[in-house]
Amino acid sequence: MTELWLMFSGAFLAATLLPGGSEILLIGLLQQNSQPWLALLIVASVGNTLGAVTSYYLGRAGRFAKSPTDFDNKYYQRALRWFERFGVWALLLSWLPLIGDFLCLIAGWSKLPVASSIVMILIGKTVRYSVIVFIFMAAI
User: Fold this and answer.
1) Total structural domains within the chain
2) Which of 21, 1, 11, 24 is nearest to 53 (CA)?
């Protein structure tokens, strides 16, 4: 049970603007074989999604402080272009390092619908962790 909380908190924090390597944590816990792989997959996906939703709401709150033109960061500008082109579907890529954090922030700033944003984030994060688990399970 402690391992599941560790996985949840690691995945949650890695999805916010804080640096983290939840993938490495997942592999380490899979190697310990202390929890079923499916439980770790679910907990990692939910924790990482909730961390991304936190970034979404930070973006929504930040709407009052800054406009998109105030940011010169190349990752922010790239994420903004993806939203202009793909809309909520861009959140399927919320798992990407650096850019994914900005995608979630911009989704909140843009006031994309919460429900569809969460669904897209959850799908993207779950697919990423599923690939990691599949590769790990195939290697043993």
Assistant:
1) 1
2) 11
